[in-house]
Amino acid sequence: MMVSDSEPSGASVVGLWKVTFLAKNSPPIPDGTMVDWGYAQWHSDGTGIMNSGGRAPATQNFCLGVWAKTGHSTYKLNHVALSYDASSGALNGTVSIRERVTVDHTGNKYDGTFTIDVSDPSGKPVALLAGEVTGERITADQ
After folding, report:
1. Coil, strand, or helix at residue 57?
2. What is the CATH number of the domain that holds 48?
């Protein structure tokens, strides 16, 4: 994935980001409630990985994904994850995390929207959460 010549230098989403997910319009969760945070790596080949700080490793705190450029400094992402019962280790769900983000003119921040769709192991939907996602680029000098 190449950044077009019309984009500011650094406006690409490729890189490492500290991300925050805040609920919005997802009753009964109050708007502004942090539902997750972590570190997301967007790779130049259109894949990515996220390490969730809001989930315990025993329940699975990594997800893998794919992304595509949708416009000037804008991107869509679909991360998929597995969820496990912490005490038994049994699979209790699958998760699809979808984002639509815009990288700002500095190339160091992004914001956008997300949805999290959770299904039980049979594929039956059990939860949908929506909100706003923000990212702040992490560099080798930080």
Report:
1. helix
2. 2.40.128
pLDDT score for 7: 52
| Pairwise CA distance, residues 18 & 16, whole Å | 7
Go through the chain and tell me how many residues it has. Answer: 142
Domain around 109? 15-138
Please report, for the chain, how many H helices and E strands are present, in that order: 0, 8
Q: Max CA-CA distance within the chain?
A: 52
**Averaged pLDDT for residues 43-60:** 95
Judged on CB neighbours under 10 Å (0-12, 13-18, 19+), 135 is: buried
Distance CA 25, CA 131 (A): 7
Decide if 99 is inside a domain: yes
d(CA 102, CA 45): 18
Domain count within the chain: 1
Alpha-carbon distances, residue 124 vs 66, 91, 112 (angstroms) = 23, 14, 27
